[in-house]
Amino acid sequence: MLIAFEGGEGSGKGTQIEMLKKSLANLGYDVLDIIEPGGTPVGQTIRNILLDRKDLDILGITEVFLFSASRAQQVRTVTRPALKQGKIVLSDRSFYSTYAYQGAGRRQPKELLEQLTSFAVGETTPDLVILLDLSPEVGLARKKDQNKINRLDAETLEFHKNVRDAYLTMAETNPKLWRVVNAETGVEEIHSRIKTIVFEALKIDR
Ligand code: TYD
């Protein structure tokens, strides 16, 4: 099973994935956590270009190709083999980030996003998407506190509001696949909510 975590800046995906991974491992599940962009040596190199090189003027269309390239490499060399071995794969972001950030944020055409995504991932799409929703004001303040501002965080508030709206629209449009969790509450409360959702999907009785 492939579970993707999505959300705006500072939504705490990494922390929640770590906590869920431990909970599932304690129950005997074989879990792999992955991150986008990155997750492979090629992906990590692409990640550096996309996030760290604030000196580069990367066009929106180029971003789409680079995020998709990192994804294409990871799906084939990491995600599919892990799923084949019966692992639960927890993914920190997925192509839905491209739809939100490059689609709503950078205004890149839907057709481009869908076509590149289709080539990049094929049938390997999430079985469940957990959206950690929070206002961009709160999320960006968290990131500033942690001193972790990357090239995309540095975008305008308007950009991040568009990203959030796009996520909420995707979740509303496909409630069977998406679950929305309020990410402005405490870490433990969010973890508990995520566990309920994932245990239900895995049919685990508690
Ligand atoms: P990261 O430091 O992992 O941020 P976060 O902790 O918020 O996930 O950086 C990922 C950044 O890349 C984040 O700003 C979102 C952006 N991104 C895209 O714009 N498009 C994409 O397809 C993906 C996967 C990420």
Structural description of this entry:
- The protein is α/β, with parallel strands linked by helices and 206 residues long.
- It has one domain (2-202): Rossmann fold (3-Layer(aba) Sandwich).
- It contains eight helices and five strands.
- It has helices at residues 13-26, 41-52, 60-84, 95-105, 110-121, 136-145, 157-173, 187-202, and strands spanning 2-7, 31-35, 88-92, 128-133, 178-182.
- It has a five-stranded parallel beta sheet, with helices on both faces.
- Helix 4 runs antiparallel to helix 5 and helix 4 (95-105) crosses helix 7 (157-173).
- The relative contact order is 0.20.
- The mean pLDDT is 96.
- Thymidine-5'-diphosphate binds next to helix 4.
- Keywords: ATP-binding, Kinase, Nucleotide biosynthesis, Nucleotide-binding, Transferase.
- Phosphorylation of dTMP to form dTDP in both de novo and salvage pathways of dTTP synthesis.
- Residues 5-194 form the Thymidylate kinase-like domain.
- It catalyses: dTMP + ATP = dTDP + ADP.
CATH-defined fold name: Rossmann fold
Given the C-alpha coordinates, what overall shape results?
globular
CATH architecture assignment: 3-Layer(aba) Sandwich
Bound molecules: thymidine-5'-diphosphate
| Count of discrete structural domains | 1
- Can you tell me the CATH superfamily? P-loop containing nucleotide triphosphate hydrolases
Which structural class do you get from the secondary structure elements?
Answer: alpha/beta
Enzyme class: transferase
Catalytic activity: dTMP + ATP = dTDP + ADP
Protein name: Thymidylate kinase
EC number: 2.7.4.9
